[in-house]
Amino acid sequence: MATVTERRHERLGDSYFEVKHETGLTILVYPKPGYSTSYAVIGTNYGSIDDALKEEGGTETVLPWGTAHFLEHKLFESEELDAFERFAETGASANAYTSFDRTCYLFSCSSDFAKNLEILLDFVQHPYFTQATVEKEQGIIGQEIRMYLDEPGWQVLFNLLRCLYHRHPVKIDIAGTEESIAQISADLLYDCYRHFYNLNNMVLACAGNVTVDDVLEVCDRLLEAKPAVSVERPDKEEPADIVQPYIAQEFPVTLPSFALGFKETHDTPNRTLRERMLTDLVLDCVAGETSPLYERLLREGLIDNGFGYEYFCGPGYATVIFEGRSRDPEAVAEAVKAEIRALRETGIPPEEFDRVRKMNYGQSIMGYNDIDGLANSLIGAWLNGAGLFEELDLYPELTVEDANAALQRQLREEYSALSVVRGPADA
Amino acid sequence: MLKYKKSDYPIPTERSGTMNDQFVIQTIDEGFRVCSYETDRFKTGILSVNLVLPLEGNIAEKAMLPTLLCASCKAHPDLLSMNRTLAGLYGADLAPSVAKHGENLVLRLSMTQICDRFALEGESLSLECAKLLCSALFEPNVTNGAFDAGEVEREKRIMLDRLEAQKNNKRAYAMKQMIELMCADEAFSLSALGTEEDIRALTPEQLYASWQDLLRSAFVQLQIVGDLQVEAITDLFCSYFDRVEGRSVRRGQTQVLPTAAAPKRGGEEEDVRQSKLVLGFRCGMTEPFENYAAVRTFADLYGGGTYSRLFLNVREKQSLCYYCSARFLGAKGILIVQSGVETENAGKAETEILRQLDEMREGGVTEEDLQKSHRSLREYYLSVFDTPEELDGWFYSQVTDDEFQTPEELVDELQAVTVDEVVAVAEAVTLDTVFLLKGTGDGPETEED
Asked: Do B154 and A299 touch (CB under 8 A)?
């Protein structure tokens, strides 16, 4: 019998349940009494950055870029009805996505949860690839790749990542390139599937109008035990330095877009929850809506309200990225760097730190309404080896001293690069 | 102080929870309505004030108001001080927006906040937030009949940048161009942000006059969702509206054309790889939301879900488009098909999109397809109850209607739609305009240093 562990948060008044199923699958269930919909997502710890297949002690096979995303598209098919057609029968809305570090399949529904979960677990466990369907998909995904080549916001980000990373595949479009996907075959997809879609490497998260018993009843019937495969993520051997500090691309845009990145290196592949939260607080103090820098850039017309930033991190990569639109991206980049230097000198004002900490706590609370957000956060927390509620409890522990120490270590100019996309007239 | 009329619509539902969990619509007077949905299911609440004006005249001077009002107020006279106040309210989000709703312009200020029970120091957040929203709307940072000149300049720049940025989103840009061509003789062709020329010419005095006109003549819908203090918040807004002198509400009428004349064609070229093909249709309607359930179902079967004709045939079977979908704008009574195509396939895609419509007219709609649509739309509308944003959006979607409908009531109407009714809609639909944003490039160049 699977053991069920309840994780409860008193202030929130919520609980979720954690189960390690005997087949190896981790199951997380967050019931939301009174909700009419339920949401389920099954994910594998396999994304676009996994460009090699390596079993413990085994040899390494290089995978073409875009394989994870390609596999995601193809898994919906079967010999008979494809998964979309089966979900159309129940009325559920289904989808899938591939990101840098994971591939996820999901549905939401307001009735027939068990039936829908059966469909989800069934198609994810039963791949069906043929050379003919693979070739057809190469055409469809080729179009998708070309569509993204027309998106200035997407290009400005990947141009930046190519400036920062020598080897790490995070610099490659999640869908790969037209050349790389041409190398994908049905056999290769089966190899990847057997390797990465082992239930020990996967997690199922459900939230909303659902109970643990509802989920386990279906899992016990549908999950098929297979020998465990232990998946390794080989080190990408990414050097600390950057490739080049600047890139510009001409695009038919009327207002230039930019992305300014600060690459980081670390001894461990993943950033801890505490490190990520502290970085977010530091960034709010540097350039958030309550910062003097933000107000000044807006007043001087150097940014618009699309300006933002994020701590972009995952297995083997961590970069702080500021992005937005500006008639003068170079001036914005200079202003951000100058503000970082100044704050390093003076230190972050304690009252400013307290304010952004309060704001971040409130924004965390806001995330607990939304069942699809919750289910995906459960997956994210599991991939990071943390519990979902740890974040809320950590806020009171973070201090302005921690933030100032982080500011000394992070956001180093010598590892920064600027990527710009601008129209022919501005180039 | 205005007296409340007894609620017109206390609509019981079967949802659990210790609070009301029901839609309540209170008509305060002919120009002010309060819509609330009290529930403790959520961690957050949303309070929004939606002000409706006819889509006419100088749009820029109206469209600028929400951002200007949210940026500061008398008590917090600059952006930094306003933002810091909001951060101190646990990151409450005061968001401005402006959008067309048929031929109405809806100006909106909304406040999203965490519930009082999560405040770490026992603050009464819901009242604090409501007061701040009232300050933003009724007590702006104005002196001598004018807004602050510096703030106006900043917001003008932001607005002009937004207008420019719209052109960078090729999908949205192609749709906007199609609408301008299709509705050239209708108010609907006006942009919700106004024209570049009008934005550049805005003055602090003009915006002050426009703000006063807004308070005097807009139809107002206050929306309260979550565990907030509905009565106290309603009282607060009533007391403010009571002080507005000479209130006299002006409401707009949306022109709905049932059929198109011969199809119009338009296009532009751009140095991008893919083309965007947009088709606009009239739907046989003569007023907003007429025959809504049947047309909505038709649109869903034509180009809505993964079982729709455009998705299954044009995208999946023939791989003609990367995306191809239909969208029904009920408030204006038009249907828009959007697709992304390789330039050499644009002609083929257009033929195929129209052929799918012909097939629906000629017996192509099956009972089985209709059941899929019934199930999918039912799922979609019942999920409205699961987030404060969706509930707030549900009220918003009916901001120009005199009668209120619950999601369950709409679902009942949708489930009753028959194959014959869908076919009748397909027959009544006429093609009005085709717009092609033609990609002529093989990709932009990169320069490095």
From this structure: yes
Instruction: Tell me the residues of chain A between 370 and 409 that have a Cβ less than 8 Å away from chain B.
Output: 370-371
The model's pLDDT over B76-112, given as tens digits with 9 standing for 90+, comes to 999 999 999 999 999 999 999 999 999 999 999 999 9
Interchain contact A84–B (C-beta under 8 A) = yes
Choose among A85, A78, A112, A37: nearest CA to B368: A85
Q: Which two tokens stand for residue B396?
A: 């918003």
Instruction: Quote the ipTM score.
Output: 0.88
Q: What percent of chain A has pLDDT over 90?
A: 79
DSSP string, B387-434: -HHHHHHHHHHTTT-SS---HHHHHHHHHT--HHHHHHHHHH-EEEEE
Distance in angstroms between the alpha carbons of the first and the last residue of chain B:
68
CB contacts of B449 in chain A (<8 Å) are: 244, 246
- pLDDT by residue (tens digit) across A297-353? 998 989 988 899 999 999 999 999 999 999 999 999 999 999 999 999 999 999 999
May I ask the CATH class of domain B264-439?
alpha beta
Tally of structural domains, chain A: 2
Give me the sign of the Cα torsion angle B38, B44, B47, B48: negative
Query: Over 80: is that where the pLDDT of B441 sits?
Result: no
Shortest CA gap A286–chain B (Å): 14
The amino acid sitting at B301 is L
Co-location of A282 and A393 in the same domain: yes
Q: Which residue has the higher pLDDT, B401 or B316?
A: B401
Domain edges within chain B: 23-242, 264-439
Compute the average pLDDT of residues B309-332: 88
Give catalytic status of residue A224 as yes or no: no
- Asked if B269 is an interface residue toward chain A (Cβ–Cβ < 8 A), one would say no
- B4 secondary structure, DSSP code: P
CATH code, A133? 3.30.830.10
Tracing tokens 């979900």 back to the chain, one arrives at A87
pLDDT recorded at residue A89 = 85
Q: Which CATH architecture has domain B23-242?
A: 2-Layer Sandwich (3.30)
- pLDDT, tens digit, for every residue of B329-345? 999 999 999 999 989 99
Beta strands in A274-332, from DSSP E residues, in sequence order: 308-314, 317-325
Domain shared by A212 and A308, yes or no: no
Segments of B68-183 assigned E as strands: 93-101, 104-114, 142-143, 146-147
How many of the other CB atoms lie within 10 Å of CB of B209?
A: 13
> Does A383 lie in the same domain as A327?
yes
Helical H segments across A238-303, by residue range: 273-287, 292-299
Domain boundary among A179, A206, A222: A222
From A10, A18, A72, A250, the catalytic residue? A72
